[in-house]
């Protein structure tokens, strides 16, 4: 074993977050670390890399017992971390990012070997399948290319263990394929990976073994070839979740929202569709297809240059989010932390922000009304929290997403738009969010869901609109849905309006 952790325990202010946890990593292995948000995955990795000290237990690296004082010590021992939020400095060049802190100089002088560093940069990146100029500004590159640069930087420290935290969260399908090829190529060279992700399909496609944590405790380790999706889910949540997606059996009603020939120059054009009450319309397509741009235009974040929007048969001009809300629209944004939540605010303050009219009169907030309003929504969505005054930033990803949903449910929307509603949340929270969507549809809410996860699109949608490079390729009925069918149109296959 290249890494062995045993009996690891850790408490913060009397709250035990890890209890006698174990983990092992073989040389040349891709090992998934899974568990619901709050299971202790990040704490465990921070103990491994010396960010946190352990209360008890042992950590062995390459057969030696170690106690790192910080990530630099771990890095010197060949353990590198690539965080979900990449550490790329966008204003620096690719080479400057790659050699940051490890600059090559002429002898003992401060003069940099710029040409040599540029040559080495392009050579190292080419070995990883990435052809970019060393002098290119790093901020100009896609997230996927930045991810490869982070891997190259880790390898420059002679890393033989790379920890990756949700590495594909912001990547296109093509970039994910490139990343996986890079990981597999490095695996053949003996590099080991600890892979943290909530995306079950990725885990089963890429990894060799899975270690599962639940509530800060070690549940078990499984070989990928000897386990199943359902078994891993049961290990993670401690119970059977039943079907992965709830069955939506209600019949759609009248058209709530209709869009005709919506367009924004350089982003999308000729977008036409309708959504009925009780219906979930999925919007699929590769990253950059224009999905988020369409729904943000519907909500007034962006200004439509052409087209018509009808709500309940009446044409409306949505010029701002305020106008959208007045017309019964709600939008759960793709990036909850920057657009959906004020993370330094409490749960109460976040939910109240767009619901002030419901909890006030004559310009004054009724604290009793607010308290009742917020507590009802917390209970309705099953938010796991200490109370309404808990800060949003201290919640797990799944509970943060529930707060965003609660905020919009309080407005009683007739049309609810969800952009990547389960991104970065664990499998248990995903099922709860799907159940909320099902219940809203059964109550007559018209739902639009943008998602990059094809199983989610197929499992939850009544119909699916597929986009390619800013255009609507087709609208598929439920009986036409398959991954192959959707990808055919998402990659530019013959356009067909159904």
Describe this structure in words.
This protein has 17 helices and 22 strands. A 6-stranded mixed sheet has the order 6-7-8-3-9-10. Strands 16-19-20-13-21-22 form a 6-stranded mixed sheet, with helices on both faces. Helix 5 packs parallel to helix 6 and helix 13 packs across helix 14. A hairpin with a 2-residue loop joins strand 21 and strand 22. The chain is α/β, with parallel strands linked by helices. It has 2 domains: 235 residues, 3-Layer(aba) Sandwich (Rossmann fold); 236 residues, Rossmann fold. The model has no long low-confidence stretch (mean pLDDT 88). The N and C termini lie far apart (55 Å).
What order do the helices and strands come in, and which of them pair?
Layout: E1 3-12, E2 15-25, E3 30-34, H1 41-48, E4 56-61, E5 64-65, H2 71-76, E6 79-82, H3 94-98, H4 114-127, H5 143-156, E7 161-165, H6 173-188, E8 192-196, H7 200-206, E9 209-214, E10 217-223, H8 229-237, E11 255-264, E12 268-276, E13 280-284, H9 291-298, E14 306-311, E15 314-316, H10 321-326, E16 329-332, H11 336-340, H12 347-352, E17 360-361, E18 364-365, H13 367-381, H14 397-409, E19 415-419, H15 427-442, E20 446-450, H16 454-460, E21 463-468, E22 471-477, H17 483-490
Parallel strand pairs: 3-8, 3-9, 6-7, 7-8, 13-20, 13-21, 16-19, 19-20
Antiparallel strand pairs: 1-2, 1-4, 4-5, 9-10, 11-12, 11-14, 14-15, 17-18, 21-22
Helix pairs in contact: 5-6, 13-14
């Amino acid at each position: 074993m290249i890494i062995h952790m045993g009996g690891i325990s850790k408490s913060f202010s009397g709250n035990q977050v890890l209890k006698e946890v174990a983990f092992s990593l073989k040389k040349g292995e891709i090992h998934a670390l899974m568990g619901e948000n709050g299971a202790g995955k990040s704490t465990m990795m921070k103990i491994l890399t010396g960010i946190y000290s352990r209360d008890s237990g042992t950590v062995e690296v390459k057969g030696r017992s170690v106690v790192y004082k910080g990530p630099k010590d771990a890095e010197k021992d060949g353990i590198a971390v690539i965080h979900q939020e990449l550490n790329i400095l966008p204003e620096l060049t690719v080479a400057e990012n790659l050699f940051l802190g490890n600059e090559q100089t002429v002898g003992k002088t401060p003069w940099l070997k710029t040409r040599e560093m540029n040559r080495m940069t392009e050579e190292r990146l080419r070995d990883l399948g990435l052809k970019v100029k060393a002098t290119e500004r790093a901020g100009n590159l896609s997230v996927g290319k930045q991810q490869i640069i982070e891997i190259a930087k880790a390898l420059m420290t002679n890393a033989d263990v790379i920890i990756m935290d949700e590495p594909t969260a912001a990547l296109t399908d093509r970039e994910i394929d490139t990343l996986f090829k890079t990981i597999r190529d490095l695996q053949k060279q003996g590099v080991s990976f600890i892979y943290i992700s909530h995306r079950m399909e990725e885990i089963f496609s890429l990894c060799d073994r899975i270690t599962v944590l639940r509530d800060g405790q070690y549940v078990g380790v499984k070989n990928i070839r000897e386990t199943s999706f359902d078994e891993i889910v049961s290990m993670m949540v401690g119970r059977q979740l039943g079907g992965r997606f709830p069955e939506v059996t209600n019949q759609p009603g009248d058209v709530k929202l209709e869009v005709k020939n919506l367009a924004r120059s350089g982003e999308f054009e000729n977008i036409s569709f309708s959504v009925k009450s009780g219906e979930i319309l999925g919007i699929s397509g590769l990253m950059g297809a224009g999905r988020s741009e369409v729904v943000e235009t519907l909500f007034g974040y962006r200004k439509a240059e052409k087209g018509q929007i009808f709500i309940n048969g009446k044409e409306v001009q949505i010029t701002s989010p305020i106008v959208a809300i007045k017309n019964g629209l709600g939008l759960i944004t793709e990036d909850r932390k920057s657009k959906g939540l004020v993370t330094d605010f409490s749960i109460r303050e976040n939910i109240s922000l767009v619901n002030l009219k419901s909890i006030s009169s004559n310009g004054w907030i009724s604290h009793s009304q607010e308290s009742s309003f917020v507590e009802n929504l917390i209970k309705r969505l099953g938010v796991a929290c200490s109370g309404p005054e808990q800060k949003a930033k201290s919640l797990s990803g799944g509970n943060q997403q529930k707060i965003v949903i609660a905020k919009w449910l309080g407005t009683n929307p007739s049309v609810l738009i969800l952009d990547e509603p389960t991104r970065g949340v664990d499998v248990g929270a995903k099922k709860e969010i799907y159940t909320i969507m099902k219940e809203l549809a059964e109550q007559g809410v018209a739902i639009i869901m943008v998602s990059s996860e094809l199983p989610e699109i197929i499992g939850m949608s009544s119909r699916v609109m597929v986009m390619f490079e800013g255009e609507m390729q087709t609208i598929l009925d439920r009986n036409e849905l398959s991954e192959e069918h959707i990808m055919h149109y998402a990659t530019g296959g013959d356009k067909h309006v159904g």
